């Protein structure tokens, strides 16, 4: 199954290709997203190239990339030009770039091929297991990044309804709904640190800030204290009743580091306990 890629898959693809080239020293890594028409569009490049392949749309099943999309499995060619296992519809572009040995790996998220990563050299020699494995690993890492991106985008879409409910004067959600909102808020903040897409991260931050302000008990008399992202993360987890070790495990940091962030938040909020810090943060619109 192939499908329409998210608008910013290309951002993630380009970042993955750049990292791949840096780690392997391949002369060229490239690739692109698979669109709603099931064509693989070569749009992202890292390394020296003449631009012959940029914008080329590969039909499913044709060429190396098209066959990888159709089979949903990696392929390695020691010499693209003489390879018998692929069609040669796109040889003219490959020859302009003088590419020979090549590996292509699909990027698959929830059984949907979202893109393809290539690594290539300009000699007809085996690429070697290390190079092939590196491209494979880069594709797996990208799949994880895209899955996280998708999950955050999905949750943000669902967050809109909660925001609308919270913004209704005196018609906010009830007790159980508040619990769900606070759980969603904490989960989104935890996911934020796995998110490489700056645009989606900004959207997430804006939604969290908006929810906090909408849920504030009263408008603050003066400027609210500014908590760091990590202080807010820790406080959001504490608000759910989590222990310091539980917060540390989810954030991937040491327990002592959690305590440090918590002390910082308590100091800024003029609080003497964890509970008081949460109450004050909610009153000031820093937490839902």
TrEMBL record:
InterPro entries: GAF-like_dom_sf, Sig_transdc_resp-reg_C-effctor, Tscrpt_reg_LuxR_C, WH-like_DNA-bd_sf. It comes from Actinomadura montaniterrae. Residues 220-285 form the HTH luxR-type domain. It holds the Pfam family GerE. GO terms for biological process: regulation of DNA-templated transcription. The keyword Transmembrane helix does not apply. SMART domains: HTH_LUXR (SM00421). GO terms for molecular function: DNA binding. Keywords: DNA-binding, Transcription, Transcription regulation. CDD domains: LuxR_C_like. This is Helix-turn-helix transcriptional regulator.
């Amino acid at each position: 199954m192939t499908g329409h890629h998210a608008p910013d898959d290309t951002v993630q693809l380009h970042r993955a290709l750049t990292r791949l080239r840096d780690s392997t020293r391949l002369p060229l890594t490239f690739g692109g997203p698979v669109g709603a028409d099931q064509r693989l569009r070569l749009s992202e490049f890292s390394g020296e190239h003449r631009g012959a392949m940029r914008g080329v749309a590969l039909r499913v099943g044709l060429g190396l990339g098209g066959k990888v999309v159709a089979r949903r499995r990696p392929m390695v060619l020691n010499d693209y030009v003489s390879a018998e296992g692929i069609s040669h519809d796109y040889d003219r572009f490959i020859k302009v770039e003088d590419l020979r040995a090549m590996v292509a790996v699909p990027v698959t998220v929830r059984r949907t091929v979202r893109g393809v990563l290539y690594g290539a050299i300009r000699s007809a020699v085996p690429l070697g297991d290390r190079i092939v494995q590196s491209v494979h690993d880069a594709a797996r890492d990208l799949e994880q990044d895209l899955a996280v991106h998708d999950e955050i985008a999905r949750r943000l879409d669902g967050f809109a309804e909660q925001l609308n409910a919270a913004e209704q004067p005196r018609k906010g959600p009830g007790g159980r709904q508040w619990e769900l909102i606070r759980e969603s808020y904490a989960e989104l903040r935890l996911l934020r640190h796995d998110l490489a897409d700056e645009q989606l991260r900004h959207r997430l931050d804006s939604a969290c800030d908006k929810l906090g302000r909408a849920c504030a008990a009263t408008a603050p008399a003066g400027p609210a204290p500014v908590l760091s992202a990590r202080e807010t993360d820790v406080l959001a987890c504490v608000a759910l009743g989590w222990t310091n070790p539980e917060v540390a495990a989810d954030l991937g940091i040491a327990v002592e580091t959690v305590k440090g962030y918590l002390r910082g938040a308590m100091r800024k909020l003029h609080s003497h306990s964890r509970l008081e810090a949460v109450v004050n943060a909610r009153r000031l619109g820093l937490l839902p």
